[in-house]
């Protein structure tokens, strides 16, 4: 029997679900990570593969996650356990939920460090310290921050505290309220910034870089990065969207909501690319500069454009808020699970989980300074956390969701939850989640072994 409510609450409407899930999806992945991995992987061909992954793998798997969550109305671990029981298959499928909890912690630990950089830039721009920056000064500013563990520690700690305060507020008063205003404001500012970028005279080059297909520039490694990023940017593969789905009202259409969320997320990523690359080319920076790309390009633009002080400040505030609304979804599955399993209050669960991710984050921020020589597997801790989560754990979680929904869960349960009236569309989705998603993920994995 499908339930109508979760013990943690239910979103007021289908739009609240869309905003909350888009708030989770749109984050540092879109504005910070997407442009720099496009740069590292040679541009247009990478973007094309990424878009294909979103549409063919991301969207169907997201529908799978939402339907599992909404059907069972519990945290991912328990949702998978319950649906496995209901369908009479192995209950160890719930381990996928546990793997997601782990992935969420690992992602959080480096996510919070980058969010800390953003907070630092909020403070810099807010106190008028981002004036007359050339490319070199902007680089020095960023490298100076990375070399300073106590400042990083301060901002990381503040970010963890902010996230945990929102999550402790609960689904309705915390999560829902935090996401309502954000998306329109972020959109508006990206449009303003695109306006600035078009004055650099490099907009056309940036466009060609993003949308010109040069398949010679793409490696199998790049294909894996594109797939991993499709999961990362849509918040898939660890149960975040499953947890949000468990708070979704019964009548809302899952397919329509998921398509809206994926479209918003993709739009923000592409707009971010169109903001950042013209500046990169105009200042003759290296598009493959890596994680610092956003932090060395945009300050240059802000310090030179008219009104740049205030626009820069607003921009970093919004990125910080986007990071916040994403980060809450990284811990929500774990918090909900603790509440269900141990009967702890939300506050206690948040305190425990907050302490854990705060500690993990200290290792990640040390990668740039006191732990910079520690490079297991040839990567520092920060890069390793990013690699293991985005390129291994999330696709693995995704393949498990696809296999569970496509091959284990009764088809009637999926049909009932999705309630797609057009039988052909349902068949298309079913074929994507049964065959296309697992085969694509499996194939890309094998190519990279
Ligand atoms: N999607 C977010 C971003 O692009 C990050 C994120 C939030 C995430 N929750 C997640 C990634 C769950 C993977 C899984 O910034």
Please state the structural category.
mainly alpha
Query: What is the CATH level 1 assignment?
Result: Mainly Alpha
**Mean pLDDT score:** 90
- Main beta-sheet annotation: none
The number of distinct β-strands equals 0
Helix residue percentage:
over 70%
Instruction: Fill in the CATH topology.
Output: Amino acid/polyamine transporter I
Low-confidence sequence ranges: none
User: In what range is the share of β-strand residues?
Assistant: under 5%
The number of helical runs is 19
Question: Which term fits the overall shape?
Answer: globular
Written account of the structure:
By secondary structure, the chain is mainly alpha-helical. It has one domain (about 15-449): Amino acid/polyamine transporter I (Up-down Bundle), CATH 1.20.1740. It contains 19 helices and no strands. It has helices spanning about 15-25, 30-40, 45-70, 75-85, 95-125, 135-145, 150-170, 170-180, 180-200, 205-210, 220-235, 240-245, 255-280, 295-305, 310-340, 345-365, 380-410, 410-420, 425-449. Bound molecules: tryptophan. Tryptophan (TRP) binds near residues 24, 27, 232, 235 and 329.
Question: What's a quick, concise take on this entry?
Answer:
The protein is an all-alpha fold. Helix content is 77%, strand content 0%.
What's the topology here?
Elements: H1 14-25, H2 28-40, H3 44-72, H4 76-87, H5 94-126, H6 135-146, H7 149-168, H8 171-179, H9 182-198, H10 203-211, H11 220-233, H12 240-245, H13 254-282, H14 293-304, H15 308-342, H16 346-366, H17 381-408, H18 411-418, H19 423-448
Helix pairs in contact: 1-13, 1-15, 2-11, 2-13, 3-4, 3-10, 3-11, 3-13, 3-17, 3-18, 3-19, 4-5, 5-7, 5-15, 5-16, 5-17, 6-14, 7-8, 7-15, 7-16, 9-13, 9-15, 10-13, 11-17, 11-19, 14-15, 15-16, 17-19
Tryptophan (TRP) binds near residues 30, 107, 232 and 330.
